[in-house]
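re: ur question from yesterday

yeah so i grabbed the chain u mentioned. its 316 aa long if i counted rite. heres the sequnce exactly as i have it in my notes:
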Amino acid sequence: MVTIITSMPPTPPQRVIDEHVFGNSYRMACLDSWKRFGSKVVSVNSDRESKHLREMLPDMELFTVDSDGAEKGGKPLVLLDDLIQAANTMHSEVIAFTNADIFLARVGTITKLLINVTPGHAIVANRTNIESLDKIQGVTYNGGYDLFIVHREDLNKISTNNNLYFGDPWWDYHALCNLILSGVMVTALDSSHVLHLSHDFAFTWERWVDIGIATLEELNATVIDGKYDKKNICSKELAGLIKRLLINVHRCGKPAYIHYARMMSGRKPCKLEKNSLLKFAKSLEIFAEHSIGFQMAEQEQIALGCAELKVALSHN
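ran it thru and got these structure tokens back, copy pasting raw so excuse formatting
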């Protein structure tokens, strides 16, 4: 069986869809969908949140950590490595990580795929953002990854060195890249299984850039140090993508001979900035599509998921 690891805030998310406000009903619908999929659901929270969450959801199994990111980012987010630590204490062979506002649709189909999650094999999914349940308006969000299903032997391959917080931007990019660079074969799950009621971005561009720079620099260090699977085609391709991007940034986008001339004249190499990070994000999206098989969800499948979510919301 599979254990699902998340970090659920004590206060339910507020989503306005079709002029209706969904709060706790949406949270309970998501939680119920996970219970249909996994044998256990565990929320990782700091001590300050665990007390309140236990009052709100007394049946929720909690894994409590001492610190959070409230002082750095304004939100009491826990580290991605905290979730990995919690997962390592579980007895399940298969572990799923998902954001707290994800509804898993048609879980029977996902469950049938678990046989493929063995050491060295993982399943990852984009989400489908739902704009309207009545009109069945939804679109695959290619700018992130909201569900990771891995074998417990591969848990530490997701780990990071730059203190990424679960729920902040880039944690999912880093997790996907680490799995691929370590040689894990990643299979894409149809995003129509991973539904998400749309909302505005919960972070600033400044934070996106700051975390992105740290993330890409760490990934580049992994590649430069040769700590990736050189026999794995996807791993080699991703390593090359990262290396080429950083070289281009370092040269300020100029050909090599112009770069060296600039350096001889005393100019400093360029640094990572917002445009470079956007380029990497887009390159990773294209890489994931062509090398792993991530695709846009079909409208018919989105409709099935929306129907299931509407029923779940009405029951909560």
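noticed a couple things. The mean pLDDT is 88. also Residues 2-222+279-314 form a domain with the Spore Coat Polysaccharide Biosynthesis Protein SpsA; Chain A fold (CATH 3.90.550).
anyway ttyl
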